[in-house]
## 1
Amino acid sequence: MRDKMHIMIVDDEMIIRESFSHWFQKYGHFVETAGSGSEALEKLEKIAFDVLFVDIKMPGMSGIELLEKIKGEYPDTIVVIITAFGTIETAVEAMKLGAADYLLKPFKPQQLTLIMEKLTQQKKLTSEYNYLKGRLDRITRFDNIIGQSPAMEKIFELISEIAASDASVLITGETGTGKELVAKAIHARSKRNHSPFIAINCGALPDTLLESELFGHQKGAFTGATHARKGFLEVVSGGTLFLDEIGEISSKMQVDLLRVLDEKKITRMGSSHVIEVDFRLISATCRNLNEMIKNDSFREDFFYRINVITLDLPPLRERKEDISLLARHFLQKYSHETNKHVDHINRDALSLLTNYDWPGNIRELQNAVERAVVLAKSRALEPDNFSFLHTIYAPPSKRVSLQEKEREYIRKILVESDWNVTKAARVLNINRVTLHKKIKRFDLKRNKR
Amino acid sequence: MIRAETIIGVLPVGAVPELVLKIIASNIDVHLNLPSEILPFFAPPPAVFDKGRQQYDAGKMLQAFSALELERFKKVVAVCTVDLFVPILTHVHGEAQQGGKFAIVSLFRLDKNPIRAKPTSALYERAVKVTLHEIGHLFNLFHCEDKSCLMHFSSTLDQLDATPIYFCRYCNKYFQMAALR
């Protein structure tokens, strides 16, 4: 099956445009025409053409000027110059500017056939080149982390430095900032990179299941344990264990893990047999662990054990330089995945993306670009394609923990009840003893008038 | 089975040897399984002649056929002995309205033997091939990549001689479906 091409004929003479159109339609190619350079540029904004046949002499923008603009904006688009007034000089100039070929009209049928065969080959080579370039980019990029901002440059340096050591790492940062990617990068650059990297989302698993997943179990250890199973702490042997949302694990699990980190030994659930383990721990959280320690919801000793080195990932709004780079990367990814000819984000749309605060960080940007590509009707993404961002946009609010919220709410009710504990307890629907305990725990004091 | 009423008109433009017309008509019957009929000759209007190029404009020629009363025919293929051109090309052996009603074939260059010597009888074979190829376009067949298909584009007589007189299986299937519509 012949590769059908998107072809545009740019010529001020209608009869030439029609003649070309009829010719290419016989091959089943998609053909569009433009009577001037500016009309051609307008159409190029909307559709990705493979080949443009451009007349050199046109009123207004000349074919050479148009060629220069096309090669500047859309370097992959193939341009063939056509003219009835051919001179060697213009041909040489056109070829220097990136024209694929040069035709003097009228031409013999075999010339056009040959040129189309050559262009089909060139198109194939270009797409192969782009594919291979993409693969090379993926290999040479810093372990799939994209960024050129000073903040990210610093992170890249830190990753290289800490990868060599075996110390536990705590990665902090808002949700969607790429904590797992950083963990993978540390593992990839460490001496443990030939052993497994296992990631567990602690927030997604109930305590008992997490324990079973980490430590494994013997047959009959609990109802449903029909066979013995190795835990991830055993499976990861020699590699890196990444515990995401470490702030969500229970105190008991913190104690258990602390012991493992100290002794490097585990016992499976339902077994007394001690197994030696060897792994590097990388943890991540979007919560403020210091606050949690103050609230007694996170163990201080465990915190210091997992937090030998801290890596704080900046939110996307603090590295706006990276937004266009990331947006273009996701555009390329999703236009390839969805097989849509969307290869541009226009200036206004980029400015909108840069000015948005991205509370969901890179993950939100990724989803926004994916949605825009799926719904795009032309080759360039415009501000309209991101209109949904306005509707969900809200200024980033200070993120507080549930305990802080609870503390603030109890204080508010106490103030409204003029610090009458009985009244306040009734409003809060808890008993007085509990309220007294909470007042003490949250260190709430009546302001002196 | 193609309907009997799918009639192809063979329209001579100017003085065209009767034998060529008969060979073309019978090959349409045999190869495309479509009934055909030779029409009275048509004198082209002077406007289709381009004085600058000393050739006949194939596109204008096709437009001129629209004025004829040929409703009875599903498709009409004209045959002429003059040299045809389209604005971008030096010459064409044939031209058709893609998916339309009219096509034209020129015998002007088909009896030339530029490289390898071929008997003049090659003219008939070439004329048939170009005619059937253009009829393919009238039934909305595109140029085919398969060199052993009648719908493969031949830009030289050598290529035309190497092209078979039948469609590849895909083009044939498409043609059968299109002709039944």
## 2
Amino acid sequence: MDKIICSQCGAESKAHNKYCTACGYELPNVQAAVAETASDNYALEFHGTGSEYFGIVIVNWLLTICTLGIYYPWARARTRKYMYGSTSFAGDRFAFHGTGKEMFIGMLKLYALIFVFFFIVGLFTALKHPYVGIIILYLGIFALMPLAIHGAYRYRMSRTSWRGIRFGYRGNRNEFLWKCLKWIGLTVITFGIYNAWMTINMRKYLIGNIRMGDVEAKYNGDGYDFFWLCLKGYFLTIITLGIYSFWWYRDLFDYYIDGITLQKGDRCIRFSSTATAGKVFNLAVGNFLIVVLTLGIGFAWAEIRQMRFLLNNIHLEGDIDLLTLQQTEDNYSDATGADAADFFDFDLF
Amino acid sequence: MEIFNGVFFDGKTSTPQPAEIALAERLNEIAFTTPEGQIAWRYDEIGVEIFGKLVEIRPKNDPMCLLKIEDAAFKRAFLSHLKQKNHLSWYHRMVEWGFKIHVALAAGIVGLIALSYFVVLPYIAEKAVVLIPEQFDSYLGDTFITNFLLKNAEDHDRSVLLNKFAEEMQLNNTKDLHFWVVNAPTVNAFALPDGNIVVYTGLLDQLQNYDELAGLLGHEVSHINGRHSVKMLCRNLAGYLLISIVFTDVNGIMAVIAENAQNLHSLSYSRKFEQEADEHGTTLMLQNNINPTGMLRLFDRLQEKEGNTLSHIPELILDHPSTDNRAKNIGKMIEKSAYTEIPHARMQDLFNQLVAK
């Protein structure tokens, strides 16, 4: 395609022209968009604006109030669609395909779970054994947490796409559950020290099972390093009366981002963080002031700043050809996919 | 027919294909040409997302296929097409209302929340008083009066006289009444929800005729008959109550009210309740054939107490109506009613003894 037709006047121009030769109208840069993707452009960008997002939030509020809260899951789906759609990778936007109906069902499941727990606790209280109910409650929460995380990843990944390529989460539920119970047990036995290792192990498992078509994600991290990072951050934050917390947050962000890589065969893309303590300070204090000074109405802008911070501080480098990704993940709406859906495959948060 | 340029992804690979889109006004579909061929999607079969000037279109049955057009002219033309053909979802219409309308909406929502918190919620709380059993009123009053009499000196002889005075009147009371005279210069009196009524000597000494005292008792008894103090507590604590009601915890409601019971004597009633008590009090005087102008003279005594400090403050910013306005309201009520005054020797006698002490 070497000709482009101006949408303003209908005249033909050369495809690489920036402006129409007949009327001077700015031509959409299709050729460049197609060509650009071929090079090593791995830019992550956030295009959302506070005023746009504010409109969505306000419409959501209005509908949620008018429906006495029933609209809430649909509102969640809307805001997530906006956040995904406002994020671009190499010039193309992500997409969230989840629907309000799916999230509504998720909410009903959550209510059902809460009801069951209340019922159990109430039953044992009535039987004059309240502590049995409390123990069951805690054990239940520990057992359900891994299932809920697994379900949330499956749900969210299966409904995310980029350039028409589906994401996927390939973790095995039972495997993940047993690993988690082991980690939780070790954390309890070590009075919480193992928590650092648990966090890193969990990230390795969760991120390591994410697919973007035939691209695989990986997380590299070490529980020992992470433990010292947390310990150092904790004590320095106390000693400096909280001032060090911006550096601590920066370190945590770095440790998360720097560990991620994408792999396709022998090619890869590496993630690295460009966050600084100054940027963290700017984000945290700025958002605090925005929310407080506008009595909460400005939180749409605060959320947008948060997203911008996240995406502007991730730098990607590598050699994967993003033009030739193949669709590999099953379609969640297939008849075959439906029976694989789990009770816990929902994600509201 | 307008022609636009976009990019198409086929949902099998991530390879972008240039697409040429034709928007025909008479058709109910979007048609485009890719190097691999021609594709057309009907308007009722597509999902549309808009981000700034970027439009993303996907078929509903295969959302991995994606046509994207980043062109403000296309967005305008396409949205107006969808609108004409009635395929633009109401949600998109609302989001496209624009920033000013969204800000106005936000202001409206905040206003609505404030309105429900400050007006609707207290109103409901006041009505919710029926959930609270009457025994609770007695419990509240009992707790309060026991504490109160420990700290304040009762004038026993005058209390006895005041109770005898009240017995002479038909007060339409639903609860047993008990009157207490307390030694203090305060020009005031108050009623507790259980039927206990406290009158300070400061006010008693100001009164010059028995009909004024009758007006005072009528007024205070009307507060009790209307359960005004429990209603006011409910109103004032509506915020806390909301949480208790959400958890359907009536005991919790009563606990919160009980905690605030020590404020019973300084509880300021709403304008509506004061007016109600004035009117019912006056009605009681009429029923007992007592000169209702006693109520008006009672207001004069109260106004002397207020002095000049409050009289210039408009009624709206005061918690309860200014005495002036109350007097006007009752004045009108008395004008309308034909009353017969029967002098009451026994009440006059008791009153004289009360004042002489």
